[in-house]
Amino acid sequence: MSIVYRSTAILVGGLLTACPSQPVPGDTDTETETDGATATDSGGETETTSSGGVPTTGDPTEGPGETTTTTGETTTTTGETTTTTGGESTTTEGVSATETSTSTGEETATSTGEETSTSTGEETSTSTGEDTSTSTGPDTSTSGGLPTCGDGVVQPGEQCDDGANADVDDGCLPSCELGMGAPLDPLVIPKPEQADDLRCMAPLPGWFLDASAMIVGRALADFGPEGQTASQLFEVSLPWGDDPALWDITEWAGEHGRVPLQAQGVQGHAVFAGLVDTEAQQPGSGGHLWLAGVGGDGTTEFSQDFEDLPIAVTDMQWSGGDIALVGNDAAGGAGAWVLRFDGAGALMWQHDAPVGVGWSIRYRGVAMDDGGTIYAVGERHADDASSDQLFLEALSPEGLPLWDVMLPSPTHAHALPSDVVVTGQTTLAVAMSQFDTDVLQDSVLGYAMFAAADGAQAWWQEWAPPDGWSVVAGPVDAEPFGGLFVGAGEHDGDQSRTRVLRVDKDGAVLWATKRPGGDVRDLLFFGPPERVYALTKDAILPFESW
C-alpha cells in the first residue's frame, strides 16, 4: 500500500517521544472526553496550582497595609532612596532594603508594584518596583502615567498580567512575572476544511538547519470518495508552528477509514500506529491494526495493515529499534494484548492479557527500558463494574512474564490507569483517574511509583482538582530528575480545561498549571528550550517546564 505525500524536506535529527493513552473505538471504559479549546472556567478563571509555593508581593496598588507617617521629608526604597528637601530631590541606588516614608504635611504612598499617585499637595511616592512620581507641587499623574501591575493588560516591563491576580494556577505571579509551568501561546497548526481531531505527535528537534519540528497525526472526516475518514500526518515547525508545513501524508484504507492513534519519533524518523476502521461496512467489527514508518522528510518507509489483529492501540513505545504496543479489542469485546514488532513493522510476538473469573484486563499504557523489558499498565476491571484495580506487569524482551501486580486504589473503588513511564531506568511512574461511582464524577488524579525490578510500590499519592471539577488522567512523560509530567483534562458540566502537572521523584507536585482546553491525548517533554507540549483534540499547548 502506498501513501500519497507532497513536498519534502531534509531530516537530520530526532528524539524519542511517546503518544498517550486515549479513548479508542469500541472501548467500554467509562471515560468521556468533552474536549474544547474554547471552553471557559467557572468564574472566568484559568487556574494553575503550585505546591512549591508561589512568591507573592501583595497587591500592587495602594490599599490596606499602607502607612503614612508625618515627621520629616525622607523617602527610602529598596535599592533606591529619594530625598526631597524644599523642592529639590536626590536619588541614591542601593542604599537600603527597608522602606520608610515620612513627610510634613505631605502625602507619602508606598506600594509593592508600580505606582501612579494623585495628590492635591506635595507628594513623594516610593515602591519596591518602580517609582513613577516625585513632586513638590500639584500631582497631575492621574493620566498618562506608567501602567499598574494587576490591571489585566500586559504593558512594558510586565511578562504577564492576570488582572486581580486572584488565580495562582495560571502561571502568572502577582508580581506580573511568569512562574513555573507558565502556559505559552498555542502552536499555529494548519487546519483544512475536513480537519477532525488531533490524535498524536512526535517531535524532531534540530531536524533541519538546527530548527525543530513536530510530526502530528490528525483525522480528516469525510475525506474519501465514499465519506471515509482519512489519516493525515503533517509537519509543524517549532517552537511556534508559524512556518508553513513542508509536507503532509494523507490516506484512507480503500473502502475503509484510517485513523492515527499513537506516534513515536527517534533519530529523524517516526512510527505511527492506528486503526483501519471497518465499522461502516462491517457493523460490529471495529477495525484492525495499522502500523507505518515515516521519515522526517515526508517519505513513507513502511505501511502495513494487520487484518488478523482486531486491536485498537492505546499506547506505543519505540526506542529506534523494536516497537512495543498495547491495545484492546477494537469492537469493545474482551481481549487485550501486548505486541512487539521489529523496526520494519514485522510482528515478533504477542502476549494475551490474563483473564479471571469475574474480571478482565484492559491495557492503557506501555513503556520499554534500555534493556528491552516491556512494562504494560491497565485496569483489572470487574465484570459487574463494581471496581477497577491497577494492573502492572513486566515482560522480557522475548515476551515472557516477569512479574505483575494488582492493587486497589487506597482511597477509591475505581483506579483507571492512563499511562506508565520509566523514570531513571530503575522506577516506573503511573498516572490514573480515581473515583467511586460508575462514571467519572468527582474524580481525583492518582499517581504512583514502583520498582522496575519487581513492581514493589514506593508510594501512591493523589491530587484533587478544585471543588466541582472532575479529572481525567492522560499521558505521562519522564521528568529529568526522576519524577514525571502528567497531562489531564478537567470537567465541570459543559466546561473543560487542560491541566499539566510536574511531580518530583518523591511524589510532591511542583506545579500544576491549567488553561482552557480539554483532555490531553499526548504529552511530550523535550528541548531546547525545555518545554512540555500537551496535545488536545484541537490544539498543541506548550508550557514552560521550570
What order do the helices and strands come in, and which of them pair?
Layout: E1 4-5, E2 48-49, E3 69-70, E4 74-77, E5 80-85, E6 88-93, E7 100-103, E8 107-111, E9 123-127, E10 134-135, E11 195-208, E12 211-220, E13 230-237, E14 248-251, E15 257-266, E16 269-277, E17 287-295, E18 300-306, E19 311-318, E20 323-329, E21 336-341, E22 347-352, E23 359-368, E24 374-382, E25 388-395, E26 401-407, E27 414-423, E28 427-435, E29 444-451, E30 457-463, E31 470-478, E32 484-492, E33 495-503, E34 509-516, E35 522-526, E36 531-535, E37 540-544
What this model shows, in words?
The structure is a single chain. This protein has 546 residues and is mainly beta. 0% of the residues lie in helices and 47% in strands. The chain has no helices and 37 strands. Strands 1-14-13-12-11 form a five-stranded antiparallel β-sheet, with no helix packed on it. The two termini are 45 Å apart. The model is unreliable at 1-24 and 28-146 (pLDDT under 50). Keywords: Disulfide bond, Repeat, Signal. This is Myxococcus cysteine-rich repeat-containing protein. Residues 18-162 are annotated as: Disordered. Residues 35-145 have a biased composition (Low complexity).
